Write the structure tokens for this entry.
Amino acid sequence: MVFRPIAVLCAAVLGAVACEAEPQPSAPDRAAVDLIVGGEWVVTMDPGSPVVEEGAIAIRGERIVAVGPADEIDAAYEARERLAGEGRVLMPGLVNTHGHAAMTILRGIADDRDLITWLQEYIFPAEVRFVDEEYVRIGTELACAEMIRGGTTTFVDMYYFPDAVAQVVEQCGMRALIAPTVIDRKSPDADNAEEGLAQARAFIGRWKGKHPRITPILGPHAVYSLSPEQLDSVAEAARELDVPMSIHLSESRFEIETMMAKHQQSPIAFLDDRGFFDSPVIGAHGVYPTNDDIGILAQRGVGIAHCPSSNMKISSGIAPIAALLEAGIHVGFGTDGAASNNDLDMFEEIRLGAFLQKVATMEPTALPALTVLEMATAGGARAIGLGDEIGTLRVGARADVIQLDLTDLHFAPIYDVISHLIYVADEQDVINVIVEGRVLMRNRELLTIDVERVKAQAQSLAQRINAELGGNAAGSPDETDDADN
Ligand SMILES: [Zn+2]
């Protein structure tokens, strides 16, 4: 626990953001801000003072303008709204570094299968048949509702019809990196990779630099689902358009064996030789990097999205996260799509990610709680290139913050709040969510998404899919036509 006097924090003011150095106690002299958010424990993710007890932050517009003890913040600032901190943790919003939001519509459609069978026999055919713009809008909205409720404020998406994704993000208030998928097969929104890339270029033209919360990027699906020439074309487009890429990378044994058989190289070495990492890249999974691969990822600044639930559920394997972090690689957590997870609960990824490294290394000291929390916030932000903007509570950062209610009985008693956030907390404990200074959830009520409408739309879409697949979406002939599946 470290108290930082407000004057010290003001010395760290970044850019043009103002911060009053000598707070005056009398109300008329207090500086106007939009929002003050308190926290019995303010978890800043600032390495110098990870936890401020009885703290608060002040938010003006889209940014944090002060962080410090609550009494000093209240003395210095007059806010239009104040969210109380008693019994609550205030911390940076969670960063979901890899997912396919609209796949919520396929949640539970085909479980208990390996990645390639699952993709090629179930997911890709179902997507080509059913995914259209309306589907993506409903599925993304459902995902955003689930993510906001669970404390996720930023997500990286890779899917189809990216304009529909962007419109949902614009409306619901989250922050997102949005990648149109480029893949060498007929997809829901393109006949082939060339058409997919042309559309992705047009999408980037429409959104790049146009919206403070939306970053359009490129989404080459994987090394095994694109030819070397197609991968080169996407990488060339990324350099030319100056955008990052998100790619499934070193995810499964199938991917490694395919690349070794075809090119006698690991996927990571293969891409590095082609200059793929000249642009910022978010590699999803990173389950099978060799020691040389880890050197490449570190040297090239490739961010890794660790998706423990998906890796476990499809038996992809266990990513060597402790070794990746040791090498200085930026690693965040991702949920992957809801069809391979099957939920978007980042607190579950955090907890499973910690446990998985401990059992994989047989070292209970692997990935201690604060390291894991760092991955879910500041580390994830760095992995996706937003480390200067989000992921910590500090003056000048964008105001993407969440509050958790620690009064539930599963938190009692409280010795160490960081420990509780990793080993106890779940998504239901999140009570308030703020992105870019705007409250998206207040007292567990979602303010920007009509949840009942979205649930009903998703259910009616699922009923249509189930009916068209013969009342048996998952492919088992014994199941009955049950609309509640
Ligand atoms: Zn994925």
Remarks:
- The pocket of zinc ion is lined by residues 98, 100, 248, 284, 336-337 (CB under 6 Å).
- The chain has two domains: 1-92+394-446, 94-390.
- Residues 1-24, 475-485 have pLDDT under 50 and may be disordered.
